[in-house]
Write a structure and sequence with these properties.
128 residues, mainly alpha
């Protein structure tokens, strides 16, 4: 897993993510591709996380969710761009092809877990 993450971090994924994170229209462009990616078989362990990330990006891109951490948004966007890009470290059509994607999603979740928890609390505020 660390090999995939270190290769991811050495790539241009986060630089590209920064451009998307700073432009709501570009951010919105990721959503249909992510939806298509989520329909693939073999993602069961990451589907809930990716769906949460998709909703997070949607709410930011539409201006509904404003209280986000830009650095964590960039991490999440970088992971999303990576998984929806057809050419990554291991192409998805090769049997273990989702291993790199799942490794990057797990890393992004670890890096941005507090951010995603804040988002979930915003979505479902505690009842008094």
């Amino acid at each position: 897993m660390m090999n995939f993450v270190s290769r991811f971090l050495k790539g241009k994924w986060l630089d590209k993510a920064r451009l998307y994170a700073l432009n709501p229209q570009k951010l919105k462009q990721l959503l249909p591709q992510l939806g298509k990616y989520l329909s693939k078989n073999g993602l069961s362990s990451a589907k809930d996380t990716l769906l949460l990330m998709k909703n997070y990006l949607f709410d930011i891109s539409t201006g509904k969710y404003k209280d986000y951490d830009l650095k964590k948004l960039i991490v999440i966007v970088g992971a999303i761009i990576y998984v929806i890009t057809p050419i990554d470290l291991l192409p998805d059509f090769i049997p273990p092809g989702f291993i790199d994607d799942l490794s990057i999603v797990a890393w992004a979740l670890k890096e941005a877990s507090a951010e995603l928890e804040r988002y979930k609390t915003w979505l479902n505020p505690p009842q008094e």
